[in-house]
Structure formats: C-alpha cells, structure tokens
Write a structure and sequence with these properties.
Elements: H1 17-20, E1 24-28, H2 41-47, E2 53-57, E3 63-64, E4 67-68, E5 82-85, H3 92-102, E6 106-109, H4 119-135, E7 138-140, E8 146-149, E9 154-157, E10 172-176, H5 179-190, E11 198-201, H6 210-218, E12 225-230, H7 236-249, E13 253-257, H8 262-271, H9 279-288, E14 291-293, H10 297-307, E15 318-322, H11 325-337, H12 347-354, E16 362-363, E17 367-368, H13 377-388, E18 395-399, H14 405-422, E19 426-429, H15 438-446, E20 451-452, H16 455-481, H17 502-511, E21 519-522, H18 524-528, E22 539-544, E23 557-561, H19 564-581, E24 589-594, E25 599-608, E26 612-619, H20 622-626, E27 630-634, H21 639-647, H22 653-656, H23 666-682, E28 687-697, E29 702-704, E30 708-711
Parallel strand pairs: 1-2, 1-5, 5-6, 6-7, 10-11, 10-12, 12-13, 13-14, 15-17, 15-18, 18-19, 19-20
Antiparallel strand pairs: 3-4, 8-9, 8-11, 16-17, 21-24, 22-23, 22-24, 25-26, 25-28, 26-27, 28-29, 28-30
Helix pairs in contact: 3-4, 6-7, 7-9, 10-16, 11-16, 12-13, 13-14, 14-15, 21-23
Amino acid sequence: MNDGSGHSALTPQRDFARLFNPRGIAVVGASTDNTRIGGQPIPILQECGYRGGIYPVNPKYAGIGELKCYASVADVPQPCDLALVAVAGKLVPDVIRQCGKAGIAFATVFSAGFREVGAEGVALEAELKKAVAESGVRVIGPNCIGTMNLVDRVYCGFGVGFKNPNLKQGPVAFVSQSGGFAYSVVALAESEGMGFNYVVSAGNEADITTLELAADFLERVEVEVLVLYLEGVSDGRRLRALGARALELGKPILTWKAGNSAIGRAAAESHTASMTADYELYRAAFREGGFIEVRDVAEVVDIARVFLGKRMPRGSNIGILTTSGGSAVLMADECDRHGLTLPHFADSTVSAIEAIAPKHCALGNPIDLTAQISGHNEEFNQIVELALNDPNIDQMIVRYGTVQGARGAAWATDLVAIVNRVGKPVIVSLGRTLDSSRAATDIFDANRIPWVLTPTRTALAAGALGQYAEKQRRYLATKARGLNRVVARQPIPAASTQRLSEADSKKILGAYGIPVAKEQVLGPAAIMALAESPLKFPLAVKIDSPDIPHKTEAGAVRLNIDNLSALKAATATIVANAKSYKPDARVNGVLVAEMAVGTEVIIGVINDRFFGPVVMFGLGGVFAELLKDVTYRFAPFDVETAREMVAGIKAAKLLTGYRGSAPLAIEALADALARVSLLAADHADRIAEIDINPLFVNEHGIVAADALVVLKT
C-alpha cells in the first residue's frame, strides 16, 4: 500500500537507528536544577549507563557537573546525532534550524505550548514544521516526555518513568500518544514480569508520527510484539497498511484506542490535539489487520506473553485441562465468549486418559482431574500430552494447582518438553500466587511457555491468539487470490450538482451492474395524461429532485399505488408537498417505480478523510438507526469479503433462513456489495457518499428501491 507521496506507507523516510542509539546527545536548555525538565535528562542518561557523548547546551553555565556546557548548538562536538530540547516553545523552531546547521539528525522536543493549547500554539507548530522542512532534522514531539531504548540503556526523557535504570528488557516495543500513561504501563507490566525494548512518547507528532515509528519497530528483529496507545491518526490508510504488514510478519499490534466516545474525542483534542475519525472505522481497520484491541495493562501483559510463545493455533478449537472444577467452568464460559470452541476429545484420547486419571474425574472438555492428582506430576503430564496430541485440539489451557518449589520446577521442565514435542500452543493458568510459583514460571519464561495469573485472563489471552491466527489465515488467503473484480471500471457522468437525484444516482448504480427498481421519470402533466400505467402495479411514486434527498420528510413519496387514478392523485399530492417543502427545489419530474418486496437492508459508502472509501452494510429501514447492527469494510473488496460482511451482522440469520423461512439471495447481495465497493474505490476522487436504503432482498434476488449519490465539492 502506498501513501501517495511516492514512498511506501510503511517505510520510514530515514533510518531511525541513530535516534534510538545516538553516538552523542545535546541537551538544549540543560539546567543544574533537577526539578526542571532541562535538569533531568543528563543525570538520567548517566545513571542508566549511556556510553556516548553528553553535551549540555545553555549559555548560562560553563559546566553542569563534570560536563562542559556549550553556549550554542553550533558549538557541540561531533559526532552528535540527537538533541533533547527543553526550552520555551517559542524558541524551539530556531533550535531545530541550529541542529540542522550543526549536522544533528534528530531532535526530541519536550517543550509544550503548541497546537494542544489553541490558535497561538497552532501557529507556533506551523513554524516548527517549517523549521523541520528547512533543516532536514527529524523531530519527535513536541509536547512529549521522551524515548527509551532498553536494549542499549539509552533513556532520553524526563519524569519518574525514566528514574529506574534497571527496568526489565523484553522483545516488546511501545509507541504512545500519551507519555505519562506509557511509562506507567511499563512500570506496571514489569511487576508481572513483562519487559520492553523500546518505549516512545510521540507527543503532537509535528514530524515523526506514531505510525512511522510503529512501522520502523515492526521491521526490527528484536521486536516481536508492538503496543500502541492511540487517540487518533491522520492517515487511516497507513494504519491499515501497518495492520497488513503485522499479519505478514506474524507480529501482533496490541492497541489501546482512546477517544472513542464524544467526550473521549473532546479529551483527545485537548490532550495531544489528535483528530479522531469515527471509532467504527478504527474498529474496521483493527478487525482486518494484525491489531488486537486491549483495555488494560493486564491484557497487554497476558496477550504479549502468549504471542511470545511463538506458536500459532491451526484453528479455533481449544482444550482445557485443570484440577479445579470451578476454574474449568469459568474458563469454558470465557473461551466461548472470546470465539473459541471446546470440541469433544476423540474417543481414543478419552480412553487413554481414563486409564491414567484418578477415579471420578470429568473427562469431557474441560477435563477436570480434581485435586486427587495433586502431587502426581508424571501422571498429570502424561494426560497433558495425550490431550494435546488429540487431532480435535488446536491449543490448550493447563491449570495445575501444585506448582510450588522444586516440585513445581520439575513439573514445568517436563511440561516444556511435551510442548516442544507436540508443537501446539499451551497456556499455563497459574493456580497459585506468582511468588509461590516462581520456580515454575522462571522455567516457562526461559522456554517461551506463556503463563497467566487468573482463569479469566487466560481465556482472554487464548482468544486473542486464536482470533489473530484466524485473521492471518484469512488475510493470506485474500492476498493470494487477489482482487477478483466482478465488474470493470465504468465511467460516471459529469454532474452540475453535488447531490444527485434518485434517478441519476440509480443510473450510476446500474452502470456497475447493481439491480435497481424498474422505473421511469415522467413530468406531472405526462402522468395526468396517461391512459394506462407505464409500469406494473403496485407502484411507488416519488419526487425526483437533487434538492430533496429526504423525500419522506417532505411528504414527496407515496407507496403501493394500485390503479391509474390513484397514481394521478398521488402525483398531484407529492408535487404540491415538494413545492411547499422547498419552493426553490429543482425538480426533474416524478419517479414512478415498480414496488419491490423482500427484507430491507442498507448499503452505504462514506469517503472518510482519514481512511478513504468505506462500505457499510446492515438491516434497512428503522433498524439501521435503531439497532445499529452494521458492519464495515474498506473499498475495494471481493465477493468473499462481502459474504463475511453479510455474515458479520447480528441479524444475519434473518437473511440466511430463520425458523423455517427460506434463505434469501445472499450471493446476489454479496455481489452487489462488492460492486458498490468497486464503484466507491474507482471514483474515490469524485464520490463523497452513497446511500442505498432500502435495498430489498428476497429469495430470488435483490433490487435497490432508493439511492442517493453525493459527489465531492
């Protein structure tokens, strides 16, 4: 996917190696006061073991500690790759220009007071962007708290999050549009044994964006899981490209999306000045790509840990083996909630387990071996291996109460060997506190066997693994087959109005092979002169005007007209109502159409400024607004994707046959959805919106009974 600028939507414009591992760092606005932002980066760098050059810049001082202080950026020795900028906001653009002249490639701007504070800040940020363009310096921020490279112990920031030089390292990168929140997550995750290798506070993203950083991290061998905190992005297409790349690489992107409600969006505006598209479009991007939405620190820890196990399930079937009946029931419920299936074990598996298991165990799925097996590590693990080898099982949860001390270590060592032999994902749900289970969890960590603290959290993590694996399979299959167009690109006529009439809108649909109602547009006088109906009764009669899109509100539509005199009377009524509703409306005539029958659905298109054209599908009529049971996909897509779209609404059973009713023409509906997506994508430069409501679906086919196409201004 290309972002339109001539370079890949995923490739950073410059290698970020020197940003995160600079040979020298200038601290512009350095201070001897450690309570000030400018006073914190130098001691942090020193305490955390940074081995490159540190160059304070402030004309007020001859030195800071044992370091020489430089009067200006121009005086800083080379090589120096990064400037940490902690000066008043109004001074920042000039500092960036100085960095460019001094050959400093990157800058992290801590300073605030830019677009997050209003009009004056917007102007200042525009000046900063101008300085970036003129200097060639790449900038993190402004209004950020810094970056952290735990691989090389390069802590370039300020605040309490940078005060721990011994933070745990792990193969997880984190890019956040909130600085303080990100570093609190890092600290909380460490308490449960999860480490990170890169953490970045992106701030206002005046230059380097969250998505550009994410693309860089995704390609790094040392990064296996990516975490994002997002309030909004300005390039939805690039977000989608990032999700596609994540599926190709098998690296999940755990994503906190905030600012989803009206009040949340308002808070995001004041926080990082992020502009947010409708949350449903983000959800559509997350659903198709390698994203997993998270809502708490525990989910980040658990889901990251299961993916670091580096084993993917082949399907959605899961087995549960436990020594606690209560946890078995709880995990079964939660697995079902997260889209996993608990199949029956094969008869041969059950027979083999029964020969080993204590009496009176439950040998379904879940398998509850009860506390009778406690302390019998060998028998327990034999049963684990039998269950894991079952052909009906794709992944497994194991919960064993006795995992303490040396006995726990021995059990864990044997379990590791089993998992390595079988090769399927296994998640250990701990039955004891982390402290008492440490001997076992250390072995699991060393061998990439994921463990989770509670039954509910375990099921959620297993569900995330299964859902990602399914998305990956679906994505790779879609990519392999390519976009199979059901219709070639068709021209659409020029128009003198932005909002087309129903008849003109339907002509565009018809050009793309979407069935529309049989209809004619006639002048009112022509209808009054009719000796017989031009079409088969019953009929719908509507005003055809680009200026009256909502004909029902105007009283400009009549349905189920069943004779000629009723047709003439209806025509007179709707013409009068239209004139009363909008006297200056342009009227093309009266649209007379044969009535359609079937279940009403709606197909809509919006050409979003962030994501481009997106297609919406759901039940039509009052249900569209009342139930909000709709699905979204980004245009263009093929018929297979359209089938998934139809199946994705909660009311899909109403279309496929419910309580003895005949199944409707789903294939014709999917074909129409694919055609609409092609129309929207082919003419994304011209089409702003499409509304097909209602579109009738019956046993034999589909027909668009009403349509509206809105062109871009």
